[in-house]
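Side project, low priority. Logging it here so it doesn't get lost.
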Amino acid sequence: MRPTLLSLLSLGFCVSLRIWATVGEYEKLSLSAWPSPVVPLGQTVTLQCHSRSPLKRFILFKTDGRRGLPQFQGYYFNKFTLGPVTREHAGSYTCSGAYRSARSDPLQIVVTGVFTKPSISAHPGPLVQVGENVTLRCHSPVVCDKFILHQESSTGHFQRRGEMLTSGHAPADFVIGPMTLASAGTYRCYSSLSSSPYEWSAPSDPVDIVITGRSKKPSLSAQGGPVVRSGENVTLVCSSERAFDQFHLLMEGEDLGRLLAGGRGHRGALQAEFPLGPGIPAHSGIYRCYGSFTGSPYLWSDSSDPLFLSVTGSTTSTCPSTMEPHTTEEAWLPQGHSSQLHLLLRLSVAFIYTSIFLAVLVCHWLPIKCCHHGRRAQIRQDSEWRGPINRGCDIRPLELQDPL
């Protein structure tokens, strides 16, 4: 009985292997890369060949790229580790079973960091309303004719948003829109050469595209008022009755950072304090703040009303400056009215100095004229007293005659 049972078990095992092998001949395999098919120079990447067959030997092929690599054979394993990657690892890969198995669809492995990173900018700006368009411009400091745009969502998922061919040093403009909630996120771009499609530059610095207007605006104020002396500590307070858990502060459109909401103000509103440190002239400008939630970092509220912050002269100086406003009313004037006021002040000062100069000249000129008239009168009186003066006559001495 025992030999018969062992024979039956062996026969069943062989039949199951044959069945799996037959299935494997017609099975379509798939190939994936972890953590990503876009790999920086010097990093590693793991390629996994997926199959329904539990017992199979897989082979990995490199079908395109700078140079072909030897075949990687995995004995009853479906994972292949590449790295530290070089430019030679960039290319297209497929996998198949060791025995008469169809190959998987190709998987492109891109190696980044081969070229200098490009720059990316948002026009007209990174804050966009729903339905509007935004243009992302990529520019490379080196000659590249291909640009690739990638988007990272709030979940950390990367998605290729487009490719564009250019010529020479020309930038590439990617139009995103009409803007939807799915379009918000962090964008980066890469540059490459069309002759080496699997070798990319280092990624550009990120730019965050944010959708605003999703909730009511917060309020922004300055502790101590919007006009401060140079050297005094400046703190801006963003508050809202809505339960935002973080606030964002911007100056002239430049993001100065975000803070988590901490505590409540005297009216019960949630608020966050942004300390700017000792006031300097560079702090003067227009500030706005927004509210958002940590679960939706790319969806912000409406903008607060603008706050015009003015940093005036030194705290130890007692001489007012004619170039900087010193009153709250002047600090809140529009830029055109402020320029007209400065022009009037300068004209007034010039008129006063001119009047003083003319008065000094008049006072200096009158005594000289009076002095000249006095001298002429004195000369006339002396002439009348002495009698006429014979000018041009030959005056000779009297000759005495000898007496007879």
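Brief comment: The two ends are 209 Å apart (CA to CA).
Revisit when time allows.
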